[in-house]
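Quick start: read one record
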Amino acid sequence: MKKIAIIMAVLAIGIVAMCACTPSSDDLKKKFEDNKYGVVLLEAKDLQKYGISVAEDAEIDYAFMATKLTNTVFVIAFKEGNDASDYYNSIKDSKYGKVAKKGNAVIFGDEESVNLI
């Protein structure tokens, strides 16, 4: 019985760790490129061109836009988890379509594109 409890605890910790990790920029870009999306790297100042604003004091680790025909998704990874959470909460019910959060990354756009994450 103790062995089962230990195995379950290890599995639970592994699942939580996998869900909480921020995916690397390269992994996410590859996922979109493998699905025939064009990927454009963005800097913080570029986001404003697309009508996207983040808090001035929020530090961005990486950002990119991926597009395929009429599908578009934006990925913004923050250096701090609280910045990611604040941004996610500020846009989750907005004009940006489907919004998801994975670790410190916030992903938003059409449902099909966001579901690739």
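The chain has five helices and five strands.
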